[in-house]
Amino acid sequence: MTVKKDKTINKENEKTGETVFKDDVIRLSHGDGGIKTNELINELILKYLGNKILNRLEDSAVLKGFSGISDNYKIAFTTDSFVVNPIFFPGGDIGKLSICGTINDLVTTGCIPAALSLSFIIEESFHVSDLKKILSSIKKVLNETGLNVVTGDTKVVEKGSADKIYINTSGLGFIPDNLDISPYNIKPGDAILVNGGIGEHGAAIISNRKNFDFKTNIVSDCSPLLSLVNDIISASGKIHALRDATRGGLASVLVELAKSSGTDFNIYENCIPVKKEVKGVCEFLGLDPLYIANEGKMVVFVDKNDADIVLDVMKKNKYGKDSCIIGEVIEKSRKARKDSGTVTLVTKIGTKRILDLAFAEQLPRIC
Amino acid sequence: MNILTDKNIKHIVESLYKSNLSESISIMEVCGTHTMAISKYGLRQIIPETINLISGPGCPVCVTPASDIDTILEITENYDISLFTFGDMLHVPGSRSSLYNKKSEGKDINICYSPLDALNFAKQNPSRKVIFLAIGFETTIPLTSVVIKRAYTEKINNFFIYNVHKLIPEALETLLKDERIKIDAFLCPGHVSAIIGSTHYNLIAEKYKIPCVISGFEPFDILESIDMIIKQIKNNKHEVQIQYNRVVREEGNPFAIKLIYEIFDKTDSIWRGLGNIPDSGLKLKEDFLEFDAKIHFPVKKIRSKEPPGCQCGDVLKGIKKPFECGLFSNICRPDNPIGPCMVSSEGSCAAYYRYEQLKV
What we know:
The complex is a heterodimer of chains A (367) and B (360). Chain A has 367 residues and is α+β, with helices and mostly antiparallel strands. Chain A has three domains: 7-50, no CATH class; 61-175, CATH 3.30.1330.10; 183-355, PurM-like C-terminal domain (Phosphoribosyl-aminoimidazole Synthetase, Chain A, domain 2, Alpha-Beta Complex). Chain A is 29% helix and 23% strand. Chain A has helices spanning 7-16, 35-49, 94-107, 128-145, 200-207, 226-235, 249-261, 276-285, 307-316; strands spanning 61-63, 74-82, 88-89, 92-93, 112-123, 149-157, 165-175, 190-194, 239-244, 264-268, 298-303, 324-330, 343-346, 352-355. The two termini of chain A are 19 Å apart. In chain A, 45% of the residues are buried. Chain B has 15 helices and eleven strands. Chain B has helices spanning 7-18, 32-40, 60-63, 66-78, 99-104, 115-124, 141-153, 168-177, 190-196, 200-208, 219-234, 254-263, 293-296, 312-316, 348-355, and strands at residues 25-29, 51-55, 81-85, 109-111, 129-134, 159-163, 185-188, 212-214, 240-242, 264-271, 275-284. In chain B, the strands form three sheets. Chain B has a five-stranded parallel sheet. A four-stranded parallel sheet of chain B has the order 4-3-5-6, sandwiched between helices. Chain B has a two-stranded antiparallel ribbon with strand order 10-11. The radius of gyration of chain B is 21 Å and the shape is globular. The two termini of chain B are 20 Å apart.
């Protein structure tokens, strides 16, 4: 996307007093899922393309009310691009990641996934043996979830014009009539759950970068969460929201959800599962696991009366053995710093601090 | 105190309250990692109000003066080189730009986790001139020394360092001489002391009658160190104690110290906020000058200026708390840092912005 300062936008914003997109060039931080990514989306892309559905900025768009078709039909639609480096890492590769990422975005609506698309941008001289490995791990996820790739595209660019291979996937699913799962439904009294250790994908990627001279046994959590979400939805009719905690990590997702739902969250550091190895890598590099990417972690908001039932089914699923209740949704405090909700972390020793969006984390191409 | 969930923490906090200090005392934590830990775990929320924790100059990125940033920016502008440095350094604003902006504009600027990465890159790309921006205190200096030694032995002639390394003990004395700063005790850095040991602080403790406690980085470590300081003050003592004894030895790491002074000699160094401090920096010994980027890539001297309104200098000396700066949080934020203390993962302003919003 080319970015130029557009006079018409500036004028519009002078009138409304909104902030204008300040940067002249796109920087890596515009892609880190934190404050700058938010600026890029809200202050530039939405200014051109914003509409009622896109503006909700959910993992999947929910479409309904097509002319001539009953309002009962709701369609979930999502897309995602993958540029991860390295393309093969412990626990997965760019192929598995691209299919899991889109499945996980789709199922946050509670939909029944129907079909996927898959597009490759491949650099000239990329080894066919590597492409075969990627295709075979894609096939494995499709077999496990019973889904199919029904359309796709391939482009090849000159050597140096792309780094090995990039993948785009999109997905489409049908949302059952009785389901309305959305961040906008989060309510005070909800319990907040997560299905296991955080930060594992990001930590696995970082420790397998070429310039990182430090071996760990961390495996990415990259996995398709279709069966987990099916179990959750079957266990309780009071699931209010689901969110795939990818780029920006658990903290960024919680902050975004508190803002969009206008509620406050209390999160308990002692309850957040983090593997020892992940903690170690993060300490060494000065990173906070709360802000490190996951690729198989679902944050679940459920009425607190159903929290234990949901926790129980999550723990029985192979992708949720280490599931935990990590916090709760409370009424918005009047003292809140901003108009929207605040996330308070109760630290491991019992003190409190506010969680904010990540900024300028130097971990490009994590997914 | 009722909020505390950890038994050991609760116990140590109770001990702090029992000390019943008659007047308030100021303890300076010298190390940026301590600053971060104190804020991150909200330790100010649970200690008696009479104990004032002030942050010192222990963030290497923060004390690097704008003039060094400007010079390195000029080098990237005037020479076709590959620059390597630690991530925090990228966002530090110089007078006109930052390395991060230069990188976005297409300059060959890379983040590394160790100077060895830069040396390896130089070896693999003999046609590229590679500069490692060598920053940090005694903790990182041994690594730079190893790399220089290796480059010398292996006769690597396309590798250079731009050296802004600094030494901690000399800065402490400068702070104590400044009458505007009230320091009753030092919480001494854990990692730096693992290299230099504890004896460097003896002189300071003795001459200025200041308790010095070398602390670890867990909340309990810091609280226990504060408790040790309070007990010294109560008993009218001024000694050097090692709380972080699982890592720090009195003699430090003699091997690392020897290595440093095989490669470097002490020299004066300019610190942001603190000015020129004699013997607080390092210069390459004559045998190793071939690796000095300042010699090989001369640039015209530009007039550097600190950002208008920025109070980083006073924040680094503990004269001001971050929120006492007019720019803090409304203009100067981590996504738009005006001064270096908001940039670094060890900077006090970043620590307060990230973690202390409940109090500010």
